[in-house]
Amino acid sequence: MRKKSMIVMIIILLLNMSLSTNFYNIGHASTQTSSADQPEIIAVHENGKTNNRLNWKLLFNQQGNTWKERAVKMRLEGGQQVNDSELKTVLSAKGISAIKSDTVDNEYILNFTQLDKPVTVEISTEILNEDNNFRLTLTTNEAGAEIKASDTYYPMIEETGRISYQEVPEAVTAPPTIISLIDKATGTVVQQQTIQPDQTSYHFTDVRKLTDDNRPVEYEVKTEPLGNYKTAITGGNIEQRYLTAVIKGTIANDFGQPLTLQFIDKATQAVIDSLTVEKDAETYVTDTLPLNDQDGQKIDYEVRAADVDGYVVELNDFNITVTKLPEEATTEEATTEETTTEEAKTDEVTTEEMSTEESKSDDVTAEETKTEELPTDEAMTEETTSEEMTTEEATTEEATTEKPTEEVKTEEITTERPATTEAQPVESSVVYTAPKFRSFRTMSLASAPVTTLAAATAYSASDYTYTSNTYENRSMKATLEGVMATDQSKIDWTMTISNDNQRYYYTSNLEDIVVSNNLNYMTSLNLTNPKYNYSTSLNVTRRSTGAYTSEFKIYPFDTTLKFSTPITNSNQSSYSLTIGGMSYAGDYPVNLTGTFTLKEKSSAPVVKPVSVYSTAVTGTAAPGATINVMKGTAQVGTATADSSGNYSVAIPKQTVGTVLSVTSTEADKRVSDSTNVTVSSSVPMIINSVYSDQTYVTGTAEPGAMVTIKNSMGAVLGSTKASPDGLYFVELYRPLIAGTVITSEAVSTIGTKTATATVLAASSTGTPGSGVTIIEPSPTQKWPYPSDSWDERGLYRNRVPQPVEYNESFQWKAAQPTSTPNEYAIDLKTQGRVASTVEPLDIVLVLDVSASMNELSVDKNKKITNMYNSVKSFVQEITKANTSTKSMVRISVVTFGSHASQPSPFETSAAAIINRLPSTTATGEEGGTFTQQALNTGIRSFENNGNKKVMIVMTDGAPTFSYLGKVGTTAKTITEFDETKIKGSGRSYSLDGNKILSYDTNQYSLRNSVVVDNNGDPTISQANKNKHDYPSVNIFSVGMDTAGGSSGATVTQMNEVLNAIASKQDNSLSVSGSSEGLNNAISKISQSISNSISNGGVTDPIGPMYDLNLGSNNVFDASDYTLTASDPALISNGKVVPVYDPTKRTITIPNLNLGKGEWVNINYKVKLRVTDDSFVENQWYPMNERTTLRATPTTADKDLRDYPIPEARATSPVYSFSFNKLSDANTPLGGATFELKDAAGKVMTQTSSSNGLVKFDNLKKGTYTLTETVAPSGYGKDSKTYTVVIASNGDIKVDGVLYSGTNVFKVINKKVLGSIEVIKHQSGDESKVLAGATFELRDSTGKVVKTMTTGTDGKVLFSELPLGSYSLVETKAPAGYQLKSTPLKVEVTSATKVVVKVANQSTASVLPNTGGIGTWLFTLFGLLMIAVSLIIRKKFA
Asked: Which residues are in the VWFA domain (predicted)?
């Protein structure tokens, strides 16, 4: 008994463990993504699960608008239902009525009669089936378009496993393991964890239990490779086993002391481990060295032994010999104050004579040593020792040196070397002393290691900020400007003294001149006054507290004094000069001070990893900082960090191991410390910065990896395949909201890598040319695609990589599943590419070369240089399509300063045009700005032809010249000019009377007395006149660095000029003169004047197995698609309107006009027709037929551009076949068993329920046979075999008859009735039948069923008897026969007649009643009496 109890307990325990594990893996559910087309109108939020109920929050009219008679459809999907009465109660409290749909399960119509405020409704639904995802969807109409909102509740589970590290040496710290949980069906990384070596298990929580179509998700785990570990994964458990290498060798040690051995990685020369062997050891062995490096590459080891004075260490593979040097080869040391070298020759350094007697300093003393020549083929380098060899600590940013270090002289030192390194400034000089000789195997006896001494921090002149004050006293004003030499050798000063008193001059001198202690005083000053042609040289006299100058004269206007102060100690925190006083008509305190202050150091940039495939260095730094990338002393590239601090510096591809130094220079700060990055062979997983105005994600990944972009909920946003150089470009088709967190996942043969980024807020609109750099996609695909270039994701797949690249366009087409089964949303995107034109185009470039164009812009480049580079790029691009036989673009160039040049001839060669572009500015009197003359010259240079005409005017300043106006109602509406008379000084916007050149500078009046007091108003008048006279010319104006005004003109005045020049407001562009600003402006102009796609069109036929979603009205309208563009103006003209031809089942998009970077995207939905008779399960079906772009109306058919076509597949839909099992009395029958056999012979069995229902589920289309195998008790089996045909659309026919709706197929069973035949015969003679016998037939309850009497044939037949047990009772015997009243039991088990024979005995076979009962009774009585008498007799005797 005890034994049995123990067995039971064990079974219970095992069951409990199994159940516990299962329940442990069943996680809680959490929400997936909530989506809403217009959340201010309708929205849904899933609010978690309580016990067996789901909680939902429904939001209506969140902006509080007025609703009247609005209906919202609510639909529940998955195994859930809502209590109708509870729903109506909750809704009624909010003034909402609900009507349950008669045709669709779990669908309700919510009616809002009147609503003028936000409404929130919370409802709960009951979970009926846990193996489902649960969705609630709201649908309504807004402005004729259907909008939806939905949320989904996804059941979650937990995946867990064990992890262990095996055979890890005690001295080794095991690395963490990165574990990825992967969806086996899609290869998608669901989650990733980093497990530390002290952890023994991993747990992935909140993992999706089901796919979107409610199938169980199968997971597997993978790990990132650990270089020196072998990973084994079994049943989800992970084992990391440490790999070791064994090294052993022999030792011959004459030294007699223990030896320390080092084990070196040959590739990196890093010391991996060391081992000390005993002095008398003959062998050694180490077995704990790692087999591989951290990248998994096998380590090639070498062994080294530490140097031993007086001994030679020889290595042969891993065998070591230590032998003593010959006596004559030892080194003698002597200490003297002078060092000489006897015959110390090497192949690399020859020293004829070296005297260090003059090289002594307070900090350095060198002792003389001599080395005798060794008896070898190569001379040994002398051994030198230094005692107390120290240097001063390097100066910090704030440190100053009280006195300079004494100069160290070296005589006639010549060295042969492959390269020279420029010396860096140091605080003090140090005599290099060679280290003691080391006899490592990897070193030549003739070579010595070179030690580089760290120099003190060296600054450039640009690292300092200059500040000064101004002296003013009545008519006298003085300023001081300083310029530090780039080599920090001196500071050049300019003092300007302005005497506004034009009636007097003064005799003066400068007093109390004081310089900082790191500057020397100037020795003289050079004075000039050009107005009075006065110049002289002033002497400087030193005294204990400063210096003063000799006398000079201060004439009216400007007197300048130029002088220099040598810098005695460079790299200091500040330098200053003060002029304390000045005498003129008395002594005056001036206290004019100029100071150079070391700028604050910029913050070092953060640099992302760089691989051999990288074409850019990316990272973050301070916004606006200039990023510089160096390789050694060579600049590799430079860029500017954007407003968010992100930067990207274009670089050529680098070789593995290259070290790049990256620095950052912020505004008004000096350069930062460098951040070094080593180029690796492995491509890092990187997401480049993503902004809220862009529709794509770029980055780097392992070459060939499948890259997927997901949001924080795991929804796939797009995918592609990384290029062979590790780049990826994933098109999202629509921008993401700032703050959205996205993950980039790359799956390759080496594993899975992920990176995460947050979408940044865009600082611009994202329209090409509006300030955002146009990023062309890379990598791309040349048509056609290879057959295996798919990103397959379960039931759908897209071509990768995308886009397809053509000369004139980039083209995308991809699909994503919707919430409706077998429905897909397709994005078709077309982007213009090369800025070319399809019609003849003449362009005149009017370019400013005034003196101000030589100034530096915000990017520290000259404006003329930036203009040249941006216009050069424009010319190269826009003429790219020109050929020797056909040139569509011609360009002429006009330059202007104080005068406009003659226009160059119209040319088509980019090289010839670029040769006309100005790269230098005008100087002297030609450095003014005669904008009006330039406008006339440019617009009059156009030829009278049918070509499209464009003029681009680029200037950085306000007009300083103009023509004399004659007629006009206002100064800005002058209609007539005298072009023989020029007004203006060339320096000022205003006509202020200050005549500098020969032109009149006075203001004047027009004939109607209107005063003209500046050069801008005539220029504006001329610009407006030109636009009127030449309406066909499209004119653009580009103002460079005009935001602060120019030449005395205000910002408003400058903008007036620029706006007047341009043909329309959008053509007037005011930008910084930086390279970036000009490139953006030129880019926008390029988009406006040229298109690679001109009046093009897209033809997009729907695939034959798909239906276009046409909405509830079944008509193609704006509610059936979403059309977006890089600039809304591209599609807002009413011409770019998609059209659907239902006959051809084709969408067309006409009138596309797209230039470089401009795009249009259409999104629409199609559904795979799985109910089609020709549908084949799991066959890939293209969603479209050949989809093409015709770039222009004249593009030939052979030049049509194909789009990639997405595909989908599906499993066949399954249906239920139900029918009724009835009796012939039309009553339901339970217990009947049926077999349904498909065409392949698979048999399914079902038994009718008590209500007679038979139901076969999960049936696909096809032909089946139906057979009844077991009939209900008491009924006959239906022997017929029925043919059941299920059509693709679910229609069911049985023997050719369609059954649907209330017309339900029925199988009728007849009740089985038996019979009992009773044969009445005489006993002993069955041939003698008896008539007249009456029988009662009673059922099992005793109830009389029938009473019958035998006829002349002696028979009675009880027919139509239900099967069962009966009793046959004879109630009347035939005449002359005895009654047989004993009941007979009879079983009726089938329709077969039961025959019962009943025999009756005749009354003639016994004595008649008249003969009495016979004598036996009397005899018995007599004997009894005799016995009694005998007894009595005996008693009385």
From this structure: 842-1085
The answer to whether residues 917 and 892 touch, using CB atoms and an 8 Å cutoff, is no
Q: How far is CA 417 from CA 47, 308, 583, 892, in A?
A: 76, 30, 60, 54
pLDDT at 169: 87
Contact present, 697 and 664 (Cβ < 8 Å) = no
How many CB atoms are located within 10 Å of the residue 538 CB?
Answer: 18
Where does the pLDDT of residue 939 fall: very low under 50, low under 70, confident under 90, or very high at 90 and above? Answer: very high
Compute φ and ψ for 495, nearest 5 degrees: -105, 125
Question: Tokens 């009951």 identify what position?
Answer: 126
Based on its alpha-carbon atoms, the radius of gyration of the chain, rounded to whole angstroms, reads 52
Please provide the CATH number assigned to the domain covering 841-1089. 3.40.50.410
The CATH code of domain 464-598 reads: 2.60.40.3400
CATH class, domain 244-324, is: mainly beta
Which architecture, in CATH terms, is 30-154? Sandwich (2.60)
- Looking up tokens 């000079």 gives 552
Burial class (CB in 10 A: 0-12, 13-18, 19+), 1220: middle
Residue 195 structure tokens:
């497990």
Residue type, 528: T
CB 986 within 8 A of CB 968: no
Cα 380–Cα 385–Cα 389 angle in degrees, nearest 5: 140
User: What mean pLDDT is predicted for residues 665-679?
Assistant: 90
Q: Three-state secondary structure along 938-1003?
A: HHCCCCCCCCEEEEEEEECCCCCCEEEEEEECCCCCEEEEEEEEEECCCCCCECCCCCCCCCECCC
Assigned token pair, 882: 């020109």
Distance, CA of 871 to CA of 879 (rounded, Å):
12
Q: Could you say which DSSP state residue 1025 is in?
A: H
CA distances from 425 to 455, 550, 674 (A): 6, 37, 18
* CA trace torsion 377, 378, 379, 384 (10° rounding): -140
**Tens-digit pLDDT profile for residues 164-218:** 998 888 878 889 999 999 988 888 888 888 999 889 899 998 898 888 888 889 8
What is the rounded distance in angstroms from the CA atom of residue 1219 to the CA atom of residue 1259? 14
Smallest Cα–Cα separation from 335: which of 381, 366, 372, 373? 366
User: How far is it, in rounded angstroms, from Cα 766 to Cα 1294?
Assistant: 63
